[in-house]
Write a structure and sequence with these properties.
Length: 465
């Protein structure tokens, strides 16, 4: 062993052979003497083509790569301490990726409730008289959340996080523009469905993206806090945006502004590097095969790739099996169904209570949007509470507090929203509502879905929405 802890390299004629398994990230090292004897026994007559390829690797710009021979193949990998490993990237590079991921999630969640402040204008423009159809612009978007995660999650592990997120985000921008110019009610709803489908890509991928670049629990925890903040803040900001823009221009400009916000986020995704290590190594191996002409250069993680059949029959079906075969998953998802149903119902109820001459308080659309801010404040307060930071309180005990507060807030809103009571009474119920959602649902779900098959459990959550 060298002083830096790495295995000493033998001459090219006698390389050390590392038996790579599917668990590439395992840091287990092999005995140097045994490897040397194994190399001498099996590869003393290795071909000149293989030797030349290894020499080119040693002299090339990627000399930091760990290149080993296994049979006729040259297998490249990265030491866990290598500067090119995503865990060891500079802080500025990680911050770029974190902001790109977080802002893409904010765009996704803003889009979910963007029509709430201008639903009256939309219904008048398309001559929609059935009040039951007025919930469809938000519902169709959320239906896209059902389709997207189960598709984009596995794709990100084959094509890369950046590739899938960037392409999905570009499609989101295009269909947001389409919503702004939709000629008919049916086309508008279809465009909303596509927007919701591709907007679910950041929600499905960003958690894995943070796991790629943060190996230490503390910075990864801060990153996940940024992620959960983005998912819960976006829906309550959208009514403020749509309310003020809609009352001064038209409903089409609401989606135009949403498109501009997405366009402002796009450069961050363009400049953010790929963070998924297996894809990084596969691309490096492909580039080296092209540079050296040796077809036997492969990445250490190539053997982790799964067939399309395995993805379709195992990975993509696992969330369904968990939902219908595991009681705790079914119960948690049923609870999520109730929570999200009431949460998004607020975006339909608040305009009835606060907005327009026929409402209880007769506010303008912009002021009605401001009524959602106490919900965001309640979520922020719950996120910063001391109990959330204590391991013994942050799961079920905190949910036992948040659950009743959630119900109390709904009772408060229903009984206080009447002409004889000041408007601040129903508005401040939103603070308790937001606190209850964050403490009783988000924190519990965030802790519950860690560990094995966390992606499969997380995929069920958008279905609940």
């Amino acid at each position: 062993m060298g002083q830096d802890g790495k295995t000493d390299e033998l001459p090219v004629a006698h390389p050390i052979v590392t038996q790579l398994s599917a668990e590439y990230h395992d840091k287990t090292t092999l005995d140097q003497t045994a490897n040397a004897e194994n190399a001498a026994r099996h590869f003393t007559e290795a071909g000149n083509a293989t030797n030349n390829a290894v020499e080119k690797l040693d002299r090339g710009p990627l000399s930091r790569l760990q290149a080993k021979r296994l049979g006729d193949y040259i297998i490249i990998s990265l030491y866990h301490s290598d500067p090119e490993h995503p865990n060891n990237w500079p802080r500025k590079k990680k911050m770029l990726i974190s902001f790109a991921g977080g802002l893409s999630v904010i765009n996704s969640t803003i889009g979910s409730s963007l029509p709430s402040g201008v639903i009256d204008q939309i219904s008048q423009h398309f001559a929609v008289t059935d009040e039951l159809q007025l919930v469809l612009p938000i519902s169709c978007y959320l239906m896209g959340y059902v389709i997207g995660p189960i598709l984009f999650g596995p794709l990100s592990e084959h094509l890369g996080r950046k590739t899938v997120m960037l392409e999905a985000f570009i499609i989101y921008i295009l269909f947001s523009m389409a919503c702004a110019v939709a000629p008919t009610w049916a086309s508008f709803l279809f465009f909303r469905l596509i927007c919701g489908t591709v907007a679910s890509a950041p929600i499905a991928i960003v958690g894995g993206l943070f796991a790629d670049i943060y190996s230490d629990p503390e910075p990864r925890g801060f990153a996940m806090a940024w992620f959960t903040c983005a998912t819960s803040t976006g829906p309550v900001l959208a009514p403020v945006i749509s309310g003020f823009i809609g009352q001064s221009t038209s409903w089409r400009w609401v989606f135009g502004v949403g498109t501009f916000i997405a366009l402002a986020t796009l450069p961050l995704l363009l400049f953010a590097p790929e963070s998924y290590l297996p894809v990084i190594l596969s691309r490096k191996a492909a580039r080296l095969r092209k540079e050296t002409g040796n077809k036997n250069i492969v990445a250490a993680t190539d053997n982790q790739k799964k067939s399309l059949r395995y993805i379709l029959t195992v990975i993509m079906m696992r969330p369904y099996r968990m939902l219908f075969q595991e009681t705790i998953v079914a119960c948690v998802c049923l609870y999520s169904t109730l929570v999200y149903a009431i949460y998004y119902l607020y975006f339909e109820v608040y305009p009835i209570i606060f907005q327009g001459p026929d409402s209880v308080y007769g506010f303008s659309p912009g002021i009605t949007g401001l009524a959602f801010l106490p919900i965001a404040l309640g979520k922020a307060t719950a996120r910063g509470h001391t109990w959330v930071k204590q391991e013994e309180y942050r799961r079920l005990p905190l949910a036992c507090i948040g659950g009743p507060l959630y119900s109390i807030a709904m009772f408060w809103l229903g009984w206080s929203a009447r002409p004889g009571i000041n408007f601040m009474a129903p508005i401040m119920s939103g603070f308790i509502f937001g606190f209850g959602i964050r403490a009783g649902h988000v924190e519990y779900m965030q802790e519950y879905r860690r560990g094995s098959f966390a992606f499969s459990f997380k995929t069920n959550v958008p279905y609940a929405r």
